[in-house]
Amino acid sequence: MPHIIDSENVLGVNFREEIPQYTTMGSTDQYLYDPSLLNSLDFRKSPAILKPFITAADPGEPWMKVRPLRESDYDKGFLQLLSQLTAVGNVSRVDFLRTFAGMKARGDYFVTVIEDTRKQLIIGAATLVIEHKFIHDCGLKARLEDVVVNDTYRGKQLGKLITVTVTLLAQELGCYKMALECKDKLIPFYASLGYVLEPGNSNMMQIRYETVKKNNTNGAHNTNIS
Q1: What InterPro entries does its record include (predicted)?
Q2: Which residues, in sequence order, are bridge partners of residue 109?
């Protein structure tokens, strides 16, 4: 049975229909989501100060590419990049592809990466997760998670670039708000991108489980972008 997402028709993509398979021509190396969704993002809508001005379509260097996660990114250092953020564990290719397929089937995970095409290396990443709600007229709430930039690529505004990209994507997909959890020292960074602390509603609480079933973990958001 095709996976069905109950949301409105956005960006010409009817999410009530079967999710199409986005592949590279002549390859089975699938994108996690339709890469054309990134083409219409208007970075002028963001309060972020980008000097020089960069966008997902023009990230500032000809060898940089902003795009959805692909199956082949297992071999391009994606997991090694995440290890600069938090513990990743021993993720086999089978585990990676199984998780990738599950995210793709659900249709509400938008893992977005920046690639150094010279080295075929993933140097930045962020995840947009969409939650389906009964409140707000059965609206869509977005979460920002797992923002990370390779330590050796700092100073190129890549933290801003990847965060603004998925923030604008959430808006284009019809989400009524986007939320995140971060360390106190990163509050000024996110504030510069338009995020605000809500008075009386800015605490993060959690329970960590000692025993977790494999492939069923959802870690708290953290960020490594300085």
Answers
A1: Acyl_CoA_acyltransferase, GNAT_dom, GNPNAT1-like
A2: 129
* The pair of three-digit structure tokens given for residue 188, joined into one six-digit string: 């000024």
Buried b (16+ CB within 10 A) or exposed e, 6-21: ebeeeeebebeeebee
Helix (H) or strand (E) holding 148: strand 140-149
Extended strands (E) in 64-120 = 64-68, 109-116
Predicted TM-score (pTM) of the model is: 0.82
| C-beta of residue 29 within 8 angstroms of C-beta of residue 70 | yes
CA distance 98 to 86: 21
* Residue whose tokens read 């095709």: 2
| E strand residue ranges, 61-139 | 64-68, 109-116, 121-132
Q: Which residues of 28-38 are buried (b: 16+ CB within 10 A; e: fewer)?
A: eebbbbbbebb
Shortest CA distance to 125 belongs to which of 147, 153, 158? 147
pLDDT in tens, 21-77: 444 433 579 999 999 999 999 999 999 999 999 999 999 999 999 999 999 999 999
Alpha-carbon span 78 to 84, nearest angstrom: 10
Closest by CA to 221, choosing from 177, 163, 140, is: 163
pLDDT digits (tens, 9 = 90+) for 153-196: 989 999 999 999 999 999 999 999 999 999 999 999 999 999 99
